[in-house]
Every structure is written in C-alpha cells, then in structure tokens.
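Example 9 (inverse folding). The structure is encoded as follows.
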C-alpha cells in the first residue's frame, strides 16, 4: 500500500474553491455519468458521444492558427515561395499541436490553467514579469486581429467605412461575446464553429477559383525545399504558429468540462479525447492555411507583384487576377478575413480574462474583466488606424513590429509551460516522461531560435536602413553645400583653376 507521501505525489494539485477559477461549476459541461464510474479507463470503449462532448476547446484554440497575422504569412509565403514551403507549414502545425497538447495536459491534470500556476509556483517578481509579457503579447496579437477585421469591413463596404471606424465596430465584439457567454459554453463554441466554417468555405471557394496544381501542391507538402530567397517567409511560417496567449488560453479552455480529478482514469480519458479533438481542429486549420497559400502561389508566384502583396491589397490583386465569377473573389476574401478577425479578437478577449484573473487572482465580474482587456488593445489600435489609415506600406511596417513584439514574448510562455508540465509536485503521475520532455524542449528551443533569428534580422535591417539613410542624407548635404559654394564663387566673379573645377 502506498504511503501518504506517495499518494500525494500521484495526484496533481487540486483546485482551491476560494481561488479565482476559469469556470464556475455551474458553467461546466457535464461529462461524468455517461459510463459507470466503476469502470476502468482501459475497459471503456471509444465513444463518439464523449468525443462530441469534449469537442470545443481545441477549435477555439485553433483560431489562433487562423488569425489575420497567419493569413498574411500564408499569402506572402505563397506569393514569394510558391508551393515550396507547404511542408514547413505542416511541420509548424505539428509543432504547434505538441505545445497545445502540453497546455491542455497541464490544465486537465491540475484543474488550474497556466496563469494560475505561474502565480502559485513563482516568486512575485517572476510572476509580474510573466504577466506583463503575456499582456504585451496579447495586445500585439489583438492589434493585428482588430486591424485585420477593420480591413475586411473596409473591403466589404467598398471603402465606405474607414479603417478607424472598422476598429470601433470590431471593439464591440466583446459585448457580443459577453452576451453569448450567458447562454453557456456550448452555445459560444457553436458560434466559433460557424466562424471557422465560414473561413473554410470562403477560402475553399477561392481555392476552387484559382485551380492550383495538384501535383505541385503534393510535392510542396512531401518534398522539403528551402532557398536563401525564401528564408524570411520560412521563418515567418514557423514563427507565427506559436502564439504566447494561446498557450494560456488552451490550458484554461479545457477546464470547461466537468472532470472528476479524484479518479485517475477520468483524467486520462479527458486527455485522450482532448488530444483527438485538438488534432482534428489543427488539421482543419492546416487545410485552411493551405488553401490561402496555394491560391496566392498559383496567382502571384514569380510575378512582379509577389513582394507587394499584404492583407490590405490582397483582395484587389485577387479580383484583378481571377475576375468576378458568380460572386466577386474580392468579397469572398473579405468574408473569410472578417471571420478570421472577429473570431480571433473574441478569443483574444477570452484569453485576456484568463491571463489577468490568473496572474492577479482578481475577483472581478466577467464583463468588467472583458472591458479592461478589450480597452488595453482597442485604444492603441485606434491610434494605429488613425495614423496609418492611408498608407498600406506603413501598415505592413507596423505589422512587422507587432510580429517582433510577439516573437520576443514566446519564451515567457513556453519555458514556464515546459517547466510546470515536467514537475511532479504539480502534475503528479501526469508529468511528461523523459522522451516527451526531450522532444518538447527541442521543439521549444527550435521555435525560440527561429523567432530569435527573426528579431536579429529585423533589428539588423532596421539599423542598416537607419545608417544607410543617415549616410545618404549626409552625402546629399555635402553635395548641396558644394553646389552652393560653387554658385557663390561664380557669382563673386572668381576664376577657378582646372583642379578646382574638377573638385566641384
């Protein structure tokens, strides 16, 4: 018989009823009771009904793989690299799946999400640093998502609604979110399912209009290929897959199901169904990303337009390339982009509630937390929209800076996740084993190194550009001084020698 100490180590930390929680007990989806509690996990057959009841958190998590920032990375990868980076898109999605499964494992096994565990396991200074970094990552992602929605609204209104007005319209989605929350978790998940289906249908329609090469598509997936010209797009494909706030989000979403943590086989069962559901969800997201990449690969790879395409002008280029058809492809793109932007901004608000509540242990009403979270992103987004509404190029530069901001935050989400999910005092028997731990740290290190490369490349190019601009301005100033002196000498009636004439 195990000792009390061994029994304590077998079970992860259980939830304190006096602490802030991701979901109230009355909000959770009931799972236990479909089968007899006396049955062991290995005696229970696979149940489609149970899979359906567990389905939801993974699809909400997958929306971060389909946000406007990812769509822009897809279209640029397709336009500049053609089909050659599809294998990397698949690999990056698989790496993202591993990270998200670890986040789900942490939430299911402990009954707490990542932000709560960081508050409990780390000293105050470390907790505050992690909280600030998580909030910065969330704000950066939210600005991109809100701007993406505003661009879609401008496209669908034929330019009638300016960017700043689209930002304000998008700001009100948090109130829609709060309204939907009152009807239960499953209703909210159904709305997100509709938004994902809208994206899938829109981009599949574009895929059908473009008719990309099936052979080239297959070769792009199975044959790894990378060149010096496409390295920046390759880094972007991998870098935008891991979203720091999404790690916090998924560890909280899995707690929306009622799981009896006192029974080990119930926790194992939840992990099994969540793994299946998350895999299906990210496979769907991979297909949608593949649609976008291949459409732009077919239409713009090898053309002079490839380097100039972004979210702002992609619809116009598609319209010019593929024409109207039954339904103008410009509006199909706008509908898909709007679904991506709206769904990702709402999940961003959701993640913000968990991050703020978990790190600070705030007992605020959900509507107040949502309002605070939404305000942190909307105010800077309106400033960006007002300043850069008329400049497509400047919006692309802002987007690059936001990507850099999020890249810098990735270690502050991945490292705590891997440390906690490997810790026996936190996870009990559900801590990850040595092989999985080694693989997880390798993937995390690879992602951190790739994003580090993005940071170094971005800042080195910025510094080089600044130095080049300064030198050019200095040279132009010297030339202007020389021309002015020459004119002054001529006007004074002095005669120049031949060497002096050559000098000027």
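The amino acid assigned to each position is listed next.
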């Amino acid at each position: 018989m195990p000792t009390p100490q061994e029994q304590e180590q077998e079970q992860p930390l259980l939830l304190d009823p006096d602490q802030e929680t991701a979901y109230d007990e009355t909000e959770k989806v009931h799972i236990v009771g479909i089968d007899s509690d006396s049955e062991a996990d290995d005696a229970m057959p696979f149940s489609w009904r149970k899979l359906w009841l567990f389905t939801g958190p993974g699809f909400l998590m997958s929306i971060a793989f389909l946000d406007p920032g990812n769509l822009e990375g897809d279209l640029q990868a397709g336009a500049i690299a053609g089909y050659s980076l599809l294998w990397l898109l698949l690999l990056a999605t698989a790496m993202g799946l591993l990270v998200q499964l670890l986040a789900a494992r942490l939430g299911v096994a402990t009954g707490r999400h990542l932000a709560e565990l960081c508050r409990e396991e780390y000293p105050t200074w470390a907790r505050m640093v992690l909280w600030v970094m998580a909030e910065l990552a969330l704000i950066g992602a939210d600005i991109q998502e809100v701007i993406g929605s505003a661009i879609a609204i401008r496209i669908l209104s034929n330019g009638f609604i300016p960017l700043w007005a689209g930002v304000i319209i998008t700001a009100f989605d948090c109130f829609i979110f709060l309204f939907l929350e009152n009807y239960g978790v499953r209703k909210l998940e159904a709305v997100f399912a509709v938004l994902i289906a809208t994206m899938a249908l829109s981009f599949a329609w574009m895929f059908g209009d473009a008719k990309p090469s099936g052979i080239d598509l297959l070769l792009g997936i199975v044959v790894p290929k990378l060149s010096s010209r496409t390295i920046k797009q390759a880094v972007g494909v991998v870098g935008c897959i891991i979203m720091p706030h999404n790690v916090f989000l998924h560890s909280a979403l899995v707690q929306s199901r009622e799981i009896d943590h006192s029974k080990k086989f119930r926790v194992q069962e939840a992990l099994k169904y969540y793994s299946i559901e998350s895999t299906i969800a990210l496979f769907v997201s991979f297909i949608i990303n593949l649609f976008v990449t291949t459409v732009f690969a077919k239409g713009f790879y090898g053309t002079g337009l490839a380097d100039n395409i972004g979210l702002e002008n992609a619809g116009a280029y598609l319209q010019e390339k593929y024409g109207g058809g039954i339904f103008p492809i410009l509006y199909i793109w706008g509908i898909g982009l709007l679904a991506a932007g709206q769904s990702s901004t709402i999940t961003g608000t959701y993640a913000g509630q968990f991050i703020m509540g978990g790190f600070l242990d705030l007992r605020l009403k959900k509507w107040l937390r949502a309002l605070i979270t939404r305000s942190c992103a909307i105010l800077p987004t309106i400033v960006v929209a007002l300043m850069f509404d008329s400049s497509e190029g400047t919006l692309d530069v802002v987007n690059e800076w936001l990507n850099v901001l999020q890249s810098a935050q990735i270690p502050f989400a991945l490292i705590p996740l891997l440390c906690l999910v490997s810790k026996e005092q936190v996870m009990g028997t559900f801590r990850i084993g040595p092989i999985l731990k080694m693989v997880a740290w390798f993937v995390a290190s690879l992602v951190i190194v790739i994003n580090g490369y993005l940071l170094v490349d971005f800042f080195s190019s910025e510094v080089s550009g600044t130095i080049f601009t300064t030198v050019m301005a200095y040279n132009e100033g010297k030339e202007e001084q020389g021309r002015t002196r020459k004119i002054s000498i001529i006007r004074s009636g002095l005669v120049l020698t031949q060497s002096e004439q050559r000098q000027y």
